Amino acid sequence: MNYENILIEKDNGISVITINRPTKLNALNKATIEELHHAFKAEDADKTTKVIIVTGSGEKAFVAGADISEFASFSVEQGAELAAKGQELLFDFVQNLSTPVIAAVNGFALGGGLELAMAAHFRVASDNAKMGLPETSLGVIPGYGGTQRLAQLIGRGRAMEMIMTAGMVTAEDAYRAGLVNHVVAQPDLLEFTKGIATRIMNNSSVAIAHAIKVINDNYVDGVNGYQSEIKAFGDCFGTADFKEGTTAFLEKRKAVFPGE
User: Which of 82, 92, 106, 246 is most deeply buried (CB count within 10 A of its CB)?
Assistant: First the structure.
Protein backbone atom coordinates (compact mmCIF):
# COMPACT_ATOMS: atom_id res chain seq x y z
CA MET A 1 0.00 0.00 0.00
CA ASN A 2 1.22 3.49 -0.83
CA TYR A 3 1.05 5.89 2.11
CA GLU A 4 0.63 9.66 1.90
CA ASN A 5 0.80 10.54 5.60
CA ILE A 6 3.25 8.05 7.09
CA LEU A 7 6.72 6.68 6.41
CA ILE A 8 8.00 3.18 7.18
CA GLU A 9 11.65 2.30 7.66
CA LYS A 10 12.78 -1.28 8.34
CA ASP A 11 16.12 -2.21 9.83
CA ASN A 12 17.15 -5.62 11.21
CA GLY A 13 13.78 -6.57 12.66
CA ILE A 14 12.80 -3.06 13.80
CA SER A 15 10.11 -1.17 11.88
CA VAL A 16 9.83 2.57 12.46
CA ILE A 17 6.46 4.06 11.54
CA THR A 18 6.71 7.85 11.27
CA ILE A 19 3.63 10.05 11.08
CA ASN A 20 4.58 12.56 8.43
CA ARG A 21 2.28 15.60 8.31
CA PRO A 22 4.76 18.29 9.41
CA THR A 23 2.66 21.24 8.22
CA LYS A 24 -0.14 20.01 10.52
CA LEU A 25 2.22 19.06 13.37
CA ASN A 26 1.42 15.43 12.47
CA ALA A 27 -2.24 15.81 13.52
CA LEU A 28 -4.35 12.70 13.15
CA ASN A 29 -7.02 12.95 10.49
CA LYS A 30 -9.23 10.13 9.21
CA ALA A 31 -6.87 9.24 6.37
CA THR A 32 -3.84 9.05 8.69
CA ILE A 33 -5.68 6.81 11.15
CA GLU A 34 -6.61 4.45 8.32
CA GLU A 35 -3.04 4.42 7.01
CA LEU A 36 -1.69 3.71 10.47
CA HIS A 37 -4.13 0.83 10.86
CA HIS A 38 -2.94 -0.76 7.62
CA ALA A 39 0.72 -0.17 8.50
CA PHE A 40 0.47 -1.70 11.98
CA LYS A 41 -1.51 -4.64 10.61
CA ALA A 42 1.05 -5.29 7.88
CA GLU A 43 4.04 -5.03 10.23
CA ASP A 44 2.40 -7.33 12.77
CA ALA A 45 1.83 -9.92 10.04
CA ASP A 46 5.44 -9.66 8.83
CA LYS A 47 7.39 -12.30 10.76
CA THR A 48 10.64 -10.44 10.15
CA THR A 49 9.32 -7.48 12.18
CA LYS A 50 10.08 -8.05 15.85
CA VAL A 51 9.47 -4.55 17.27
CA ILE A 52 7.55 -1.52 15.99
CA ILE A 53 8.49 2.05 16.92
CA VAL A 54 5.96 4.80 16.23
CA THR A 55 7.09 8.42 16.14
CA GLY A 56 6.40 11.78 14.48
CA SER A 57 8.39 13.58 11.83
CA GLY A 58 10.52 16.54 12.88
CA GLU A 59 11.39 17.75 16.36
CA LYS A 60 8.26 19.77 17.15
CA ALA A 61 5.57 17.12 17.44
CA PHE A 62 4.89 13.45 17.88
CA VAL A 63 1.22 14.14 17.15
CA ALA A 64 -0.23 17.50 18.15
CA GLY A 65 -3.80 16.18 18.32
CA ALA A 66 -6.65 15.34 16.01
CA ASP A 67 -7.62 17.34 12.93
CA ILE A 68 -10.43 19.38 14.51
CA SER A 69 -11.65 20.71 11.17
CA GLU A 70 -12.85 17.20 10.28
CA PHE A 71 -15.36 16.90 13.13
CA ALA A 72 -16.23 20.42 14.30
CA SER A 73 -19.73 20.15 12.77
CA PHE A 74 -20.48 16.54 13.75
CA SER A 75 -23.75 15.46 15.36
CA VAL A 76 -24.03 13.38 18.55
CA GLU A 77 -24.28 10.19 16.50
CA GLN A 78 -21.35 11.13 14.27
CA GLY A 79 -19.22 11.95 17.30
CA ALA A 80 -19.87 8.57 18.90
CA GLU A 81 -19.14 6.84 15.61
CA LEU A 82 -15.88 8.78 15.24
CA ALA A 83 -14.67 7.59 18.66
CA ALA A 84 -15.81 3.99 18.14
CA LYS A 85 -14.22 3.69 14.70
CA GLY A 86 -10.98 5.32 15.81
CA GLN A 87 -10.62 3.04 18.81
CA GLU A 88 -11.31 -0.03 16.67
CA LEU A 89 -9.00 0.90 13.81
CA LEU A 90 -6.04 2.26 15.73
CA PHE A 91 -5.97 2.73 19.48
CA ASP A 92 -7.37 -0.59 20.72
CA PHE A 93 -5.76 -2.26 17.71
CA VAL A 94 -2.28 -1.05 18.69
CA GLN A 95 -2.73 -1.91 22.37
CA ASN A 96 -3.64 -5.50 21.49
CA LEU A 97 -1.02 -6.02 18.79
CA SER A 98 1.13 -9.11 19.40
CA THR A 99 4.25 -7.30 18.16
CA PRO A 100 5.72 -4.92 20.77
CA VAL A 101 5.00 -1.26 20.01
CA ILE A 102 7.12 1.53 21.52
CA ALA A 103 6.12 5.18 21.16
CA ALA A 104 9.09 7.51 20.68
CA VAL A 105 7.50 10.78 21.75
CA ASN A 106 9.22 13.82 20.25
CA GLY A 107 7.78 17.25 21.01
CA PHE A 108 4.03 17.73 21.47
CA ALA A 109 1.83 14.70 22.15
CA LEU A 110 -1.60 16.18 22.66
CA GLY A 111 -5.12 14.79 22.49
CA GLY A 112 -5.15 11.93 20.00
CA GLY A 113 -1.36 12.04 19.94
CA LEU A 114 -1.07 11.24 23.63
CA GLU A 115 -3.83 8.67 23.22
CA LEU A 116 -1.80 6.95 20.49
CA ALA A 117 1.33 7.03 22.66
CA MET A 118 -0.63 5.52 25.56
CA ALA A 119 -2.00 2.77 23.31
CA ALA A 120 1.60 1.70 22.60
CA HIS A 121 3.01 -0.87 24.99
CA PHE A 122 5.32 1.72 26.54
CA ARG A 123 6.79 5.14 25.84
CA VAL A 124 10.16 6.91 25.55
CA ALA A 125 10.10 10.74 25.48
CA SER A 126 12.52 13.36 24.27
CA ASP A 127 13.43 16.01 26.82
CA ASN A 128 11.45 18.63 24.88
CA ALA A 129 8.23 16.59 24.90
CA LYS A 130 5.00 18.09 26.21
CA MET A 131 1.98 15.87 26.83
CA GLY A 132 -1.65 16.57 27.55
CA LEU A 133 -5.31 15.92 26.85
CA PRO A 134 -6.75 19.39 26.10
CA GLU A 135 -10.17 18.22 24.89
CA THR A 136 -12.19 19.83 27.70
CA SER A 137 -10.99 23.23 26.44
CA LEU A 138 -12.91 22.42 23.25
CA GLY A 139 -16.08 21.34 25.05
CA VAL A 140 -15.49 17.61 24.59
CA ILE A 141 -13.61 14.79 26.33
CA PRO A 142 -10.88 12.46 25.07
CA GLY A 143 -12.57 9.91 22.82
CA TYR A 144 -9.81 7.55 21.76
CA GLY A 145 -9.36 5.81 25.12
CA GLY A 146 -7.59 8.68 26.86
CA THR A 147 -9.80 8.80 29.94
CA GLN A 148 -9.20 5.11 30.54
CA ARG A 149 -5.54 4.62 29.69
CA LEU A 150 -4.32 7.79 31.40
CA ALA A 151 -5.95 6.76 34.69
CA GLN A 152 -4.48 3.25 34.36
CA LEU A 153 -0.99 4.65 33.82
CA ILE A 154 -0.78 7.52 36.31
CA GLY A 155 -3.71 7.00 38.68
CA ARG A 156 -7.19 8.46 38.84
CA GLY A 157 -6.35 11.67 40.68
CA ARG A 158 -3.57 12.77 38.34
CA ALA A 159 -5.66 11.80 35.31
CA MET A 160 -8.62 13.81 36.62
CA GLU A 161 -6.42 16.89 37.06
CA MET A 162 -4.78 16.63 33.63
CA ILE A 163 -8.12 16.21 31.85
CA MET A 164 -10.02 18.82 33.88
CA THR A 165 -7.33 21.51 33.53
CA ALA A 166 -6.58 20.60 29.88
CA GLY A 167 -2.96 21.31 30.83
CA MET A 168 0.32 19.92 29.55
CA VAL A 169 3.03 18.12 31.50
CA THR A 170 6.74 18.11 30.72
CA ALA A 171 8.68 14.98 29.88
CA GLU A 172 10.19 14.94 33.39
CA ASP A 173 6.75 15.26 35.00
CA ALA A 174 5.50 12.46 32.77
CA TYR A 175 8.44 10.28 33.82
CA ARG A 176 7.82 10.90 37.52
CA ALA A 177 4.13 10.07 37.08
CA GLY A 178 4.87 6.83 35.22
CA LEU A 179 3.47 8.02 31.92
CA VAL A 180 6.79 7.46 30.12
CA ASN A 181 9.54 4.95 30.88
CA HIS A 182 12.53 7.06 29.86
CA VAL A 183 13.45 10.66 29.00
CA VAL A 184 16.41 11.26 26.69
CA ALA A 185 17.91 14.15 24.75
CA GLN A 186 15.91 14.84 21.59
CA PRO A 187 18.73 13.97 19.13
CA ASP A 188 19.18 10.59 20.86
CA LEU A 189 15.50 9.60 21.01
CA LEU A 190 15.30 7.19 18.10
CA GLU A 191 18.65 5.48 18.68
CA PHE A 192 17.90 5.04 22.38
CA THR A 193 14.50 3.54 21.57
CA LYS A 194 16.06 1.24 18.98
CA GLY A 195 18.48 0.09 21.68
CA ILE A 196 15.55 -1.05 23.83
CA ALA A 197 13.99 -2.70 20.78
CA THR A 198 17.21 -4.63 20.18
CA ARG A 199 17.15 -5.95 23.75
CA ILE A 200 13.53 -7.05 23.25
CA MET A 201 14.52 -8.88 20.08
CA ASN A 202 16.95 -11.07 22.04
CA ASN A 203 13.96 -12.79 23.65
CA SER A 204 11.17 -15.06 22.44
CA SER A 205 8.65 -13.24 20.26
CA VAL A 206 6.10 -15.95 21.08
CA ALA A 207 6.52 -15.45 24.83
CA ILE A 208 6.37 -11.67 24.41
CA ALA A 209 3.09 -11.93 22.47
CA HIS A 210 1.63 -14.02 25.31
CA ALA A 211 2.90 -11.51 27.88
CA ILE A 212 1.28 -8.59 26.05
CA LYS A 213 -2.06 -10.38 26.01
CA VAL A 214 -2.13 -11.41 29.65
CA ILE A 215 -0.96 -8.01 30.90
CA ASN A 216 -3.76 -6.39 28.88
CA ASP A 217 -6.25 -8.96 30.23
CA ASN A 218 -5.81 -7.47 33.70
CA TYR A 219 -7.65 -4.38 32.45
CA VAL A 220 -10.53 -6.15 30.68
CA ASP A 221 -13.81 -6.36 32.59
CA GLY A 222 -14.86 -9.93 33.26
CA VAL A 223 -11.46 -11.41 32.46
CA ASN A 224 -9.34 -12.96 35.21
CA GLY A 225 -5.77 -11.97 34.38
CA TYR A 226 -4.34 -14.59 36.71
CA GLN A 227 -6.21 -17.35 34.91
CA SER A 228 -5.08 -15.93 31.56
CA GLU A 229 -1.51 -16.05 32.84
CA ILE A 230 -1.83 -19.69 33.92
CA LYS A 231 -3.16 -20.74 30.52
CA ALA A 232 -0.57 -18.74 28.57
CA PHE A 233 2.22 -20.05 30.79
CA GLY A 234 1.14 -23.60 29.99
CA ASP A 235 0.80 -22.85 26.28
CA CYS A 236 4.41 -21.67 26.20
CA PHE A 237 5.54 -25.19 27.10
CA GLY A 238 4.29 -26.39 23.71
CA THR A 239 6.34 -23.92 21.67
CA ALA A 240 9.60 -24.35 19.81
CA ASP A 241 10.83 -21.16 21.51
CA PHE A 242 10.43 -22.77 24.94
CA LYS A 243 12.36 -25.83 23.83
CA GLU A 244 15.15 -23.66 22.40
CA GLY A 245 15.26 -21.31 25.38
CA THR A 246 15.50 -24.04 28.00
CA THR A 247 17.92 -26.11 25.93
CA ALA A 248 20.19 -23.10 25.40
CA PHE A 249 20.12 -22.33 29.13
CA LEU A 250 21.10 -25.87 30.05
CA GLU A 251 23.82 -25.92 27.39
CA LYS A 252 25.07 -22.51 28.59
CA ARG A 253 24.73 -20.83 25.21
CA LYS A 254 22.74 -17.95 23.75
CA ALA A 255 19.28 -18.94 22.58
CA VAL A 256 18.36 -18.58 18.92
CA PHE A 257 14.58 -18.41 18.99
CA PRO A 258 12.71 -19.61 15.90
CA GLY A 259 9.66 -17.52 16.80
CA GLU A 260 7.36 -20.53 16.87
Answer: 106
